[in-house]
Design a protein that fits this description.
The protein is α+β, with helices and mostly antiparallel strands. 25% of the residues lie in helices and 14% in strands. It is elongated and about 60 Å long.
């Protein structure tokens, strides 16, 4: 969001954070605590070590739902469409939880709550089918 970008660049200007562009973490270095990360630039393929005391890894904004394509209904951005009550999808007995169906929040805590809801929905479905 624009607000988060503004906040990010203010922290950069204050020297609180240092952005590293076009790079991926190849390794986390340290024994009991993180002391550095090894980075690889995706354009130049050059590797370097960056000293740090912590690491935050964002999973991105693209849901990992490609394997469901053509089986479970997905929206135009790839998120699973919930197709009925609760966490049910368009496929009977299949329930979705967390980041695969949540384009708004995409956070661990909401994913955990959705996981609990999907488990309860699955349990009810199994009971209705006489399986559990």
């Amino acid at each position: 969001s624009k607000a988060m970008q503004d906040r990010f660049f203010r922290l950069v200007e204050k020297g609180k954070i240092v952005p590293v562009w076009d790079s991926v973490v190849v390794d986390v270095l340290g024994d009991d605590v993180i002391r550095a990360v090894q980075l690889e630039n995706v354009k130049s393929k050059q590797r370097r070590e960056l000293a740090c005391k912590g690491l935050f890894i964002a999973i991105g904004h693209t849901p990992n739902t490609e394997l469901f394509k053509g089986v479970i209904d997905l929206d135009d951005k790839g998120y699973v469409k919930l197709g009925g009550e609760g966490t049910a999808t368009n496929v009977e007995g299949v329930f979705a939880a967390g980041d695969v169906h949540d384009p708004d929040y995409r956070q661990a805590i909401t994913a955990a709550g959705a996981g609990c809801a999907a488990a309860l929905d699955a349990q009810r479905w199994l009971e209705e089918q006489g399986i559990a």
